[in-house]
Amino acid sequence: MADLIPFDDRDGSIWFNGALVPWRDAKVHVLTHGLHYGSCVFEGERCYAGRIFKSRAHSERLIESGRILGFQVPYTAEELDAAKAATVEANGLADCYVRALAWRGSEMMGVSAQQSKINVAVASWQWGAYYQDLRLTRAAYDRPAPNTAPIHAKAAGLYMICTVSKHAAEDKGFGDAIMLDYRGFVAETTGANIFLVIDGALHTPLPDCFLNGITRRTVIDIARQRGIEVVERHIRPEELADAQEVFVTGTAAEVTPVRAIDDLTYQKGPVTEALMDAYREATRGGHAA
Ligand code: PMP
User: Fold this and answer.
1) How remote is the CA of residue 232 from the centroid of ligand 1, in Å?
2) Ligand 1 within 6 A of CB of 216
3) Atom of ligand 1 at shortest distance to CA of 215?
4) For a 10 Å CB count at each end of the chain, is N or C smaller?
5) pTM (global) more than 0.90
6) What pLDDT, in 10s, does the model give residues 74-122?
């Protein structure tokens, strides 16, 4: 713990309901609906050489996540894009992570909170590689069924089972957990989508009960442009043994090779390498805004 710099005690600025405020002043009260009832949605984004990759898609997803949770984010996608850019600039950052979030405030404290104010904040900080030498183990929890949770929202509450699962994996010496879905099919990790390379083709779970990641869609587009076959389908856990390569995708994770899933081991192979290079080019190369 000694070397951790707490996130509430740093220099810089945070965009908070329309204005940049000193980092340490960006506070909420303990009686905040988002904290008690999970009425919070968020985005994780990466900025490369001063340009936030797919900023508009992330802004639109934040608004859509709020809509799914029954609230209107009080800014347009254009305004959110501008807020994010202003935050990065105010902190003097060029290559960084960007966290935007929206949550119900303190006006009402009960399950019903129809009159609560919707707050929005954007923070930004330096964040290196998300995974190192990634090895996965089976998660404690499964992804919930679409009729049991707002599965297409990037909602804070959905991460409760991710943190528990990731902690259990870390306690066993793994980097992350691989979550199955409510039917027992392979779903994703606690913060990234998963791909298998089987005989030169990419196989990836259908995103019918988890986040269809922006990185996932980017990598699928890149693969198809390069003539790599992409198969979106239900994948049984036994099929993990058929893969020659496995990798995960996410804004923070980018394209990260998976070295092992419990007893199965994988090499970083040519398809993964090619997609890592192509994703690096897409994010830093100046296209696909
Ligand atoms: N699944 C989960 C659970 C995630 O947290 C993330 C990261 N946002 C992803 C998938 C990947 O999504 P994206 O590529 O849009 O970052």
Assistant:
1) 17
2) yes
3) 14
4) N
5) yes
6) 999 999 999 999 999 999 999 999 999 999 999 999 999 999 999 999 9
Q: Which atom of ligand 1 is nearest to the CA of 252?
A: 16
The reply to whether ligand 1 has any atom less than 6 angstroms from the CB of 188 is: yes
Q: Compute the distance from residue 250 Cα to the ligand 1 centre, in Å.
A: 5
User: What is the chain's mean pLDDT, rounded?
Assistant: 96
Q: How far is CA 202 from the centre of its chain?
A: 21
Q: Where are the beta strands (DSSP E) in the chain?
A: 13-16, 19-22, 40-48, 51-52, 96-104, 118-125, 134-138, 176-180, 186-189, 193-198, 201-205, 230-233, 245-250, 254-261, 264-265
